[in-house]
Amino acid sequence: MTGQPVGRDRDPAGRPRNARPRDALGRPLPKGAAGVERVPDDYAPSAGQALADAVRYLAEARPFHAHEVLEGRWKACPPEERELWQGLAQICVGLTHIQRGNTRGAATLLSRGADRIAQYGSRTSGPQGPPESYEGEPQGTSAAQPIDLDETVRVARDLAEHPATDPATAITRVADILKTG
Which end of the chain has fewer CB atoms < 10 Å from its terminal CB, N or C? Predict the structure, then answer.
């Protein structure tokens, strides 16, 4: 007996992994079913790459996958950035709930995400802070540019209070903020 839960996917070091396939909305499928391609568990993008990938997934109406990308950055970023990346990931999970028709879950996650991002104050900034933090980021891409944190919070709170009946509208509103910086 290893003391680990039976049937849980684990990596060689014993850390939990989720190898279960998922559908396009991120819902788990039975083991062995064909699912959509997943973001690897060990994905650790730079800030610019995380935003570029998240925007791409949002453009494909795949906010669950955008959440996985942002979660990868949240797990790999410096401690002072974690709340911000977690907030962005929670907003994308809120969008996933809108897609699934779960307005209560959407409101909860959108509000939590907005609250985390609001901790960073009223500014237009990149997720990792002042512009000097962008060293090493891809140049000339909108994903490496600062994002408007106030607008991100405003839109997330608006979506939490007035969930869009059309998920595409909600997803587009968030994607537009992340890509226009």
Answer: N
